[in-house]
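Researcher: Good morning. I'm working through a list of sequences from a screen, and I'd like to move beyond sequence-only analysis. For each chain I'm collecting a predicted structure so we can compare shapes side by side. This is the next one on the list. No need for commentary yet; just the structure.
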Amino acid sequence: MKYSQVMEQVRTSAIASALSSHPADAIAQVEDAYYQQISSICDMVTHDHIHLLLVTGPSASGKTTTAKKLALELHVRGKRVNRLSLDNFYKSSDELPRWEDGYQNYESVEGLDLECFERVMQTLFRDGRAQFPIFDFTAGRRAEKTFELTFDNHTYLIIEGIHALNPVLAPAFHGHRTVKTYISVHSDFVNDQGDLLMSARDLRLTRRLLRDYYYRGTAAEETLKMWDYVAETRTQYLDYLPESAYPASEGFVQPCCDSPLDSENVAENAYFNALRHAQHYVYLMTPYLILDNEMTTELCLSAKSGVDVRIITPGIPDTPYVYYVTQSYYPELLRAGVRIYEYTPGFVHAKMFVSDGKLAIVGSANTDYRSLYLHYENCCQFFGGQIVNRVKEDFEATMAMCHEVTAEDIRRVPLYKWLAQMFLRLFAPLM
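Model: Good morning. Structure tokens for this chain:
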């Protein structure tokens, strides 16, 4: 069993246990987790200005519900949103493909009027508005009535359906960036003893029974007759998702992000972890060395314990007063045994840690107050592998073009400059 499957089983077991003891709290937790996923998708599309969202998944997986949640969240953020269901493009019942026993097969992409869909979408993208069909499931055909949708650079369009990611629909979206979302109930619910409470398949069936009865006028008996075909369909929806091949590696990569809106200082903790576990060396490159007391303490303790701690900073600053503050930390660090190098050709903007040939951190987080406490940052941690050695090689190549700061350099600092450094350091949390 894959690790992800094990973790999913653990999670659902915990949920099932919580449902037995505190159902209201458990439901609230699940709803909150669901909302976080919805919010994350909306963050991405608004940040990247992607106005076309495709939502897919197997029958009764929650596509329509998710599309509605996405639309609501975008609306709350002040965005104009339209939703479109591919169900409206089904062929009439007498044109639908059939299962082996003659039941109508709504799961096949051949049941969609693809020509109509592409034609309407072209009109929408060209003219900014188009008339869309309405499929009447009770009658088994399209209604005479249509509805109008609009689309422009200020409108988000959410398209949901079991074939939303099918490549045969891709020509209709040509020239438009899309966000592709797959929805699925992929875990069974088990209790602490491992007993099955409800399978993922049965949960989908329950949803399908309710949907068919209330919205499609289909009796439960008919849904149950078709369900074996629907549940066992060989359509592999995940095959529609793009895949990237990554070469095998002996190491691991852990992406991480940091936000000022939570209580976790992820970037700073990652740096602390590198310093606290280093046994031989820690190399640090940063454009802005504006340290809080905790980071200063960790750097000094590592150096005092015998670890080779080296820091590369710019030799030519982009901001003089920030450079003054950076240099104000030199005396304390040098006394503790930290070696400091200034890049003589100019300014360095890289932010990276590397330690013991085992760990490297590369990302956007500077060692200053703004990055560690106030900014949104992204980093990658590399554990083992050639990438760690390559980061170290880059550091050493950069260090060869640096001037090592010595105690004599500190003694030669003019009094006015030292006073300026001390004064500006009072404002370090603002820099």
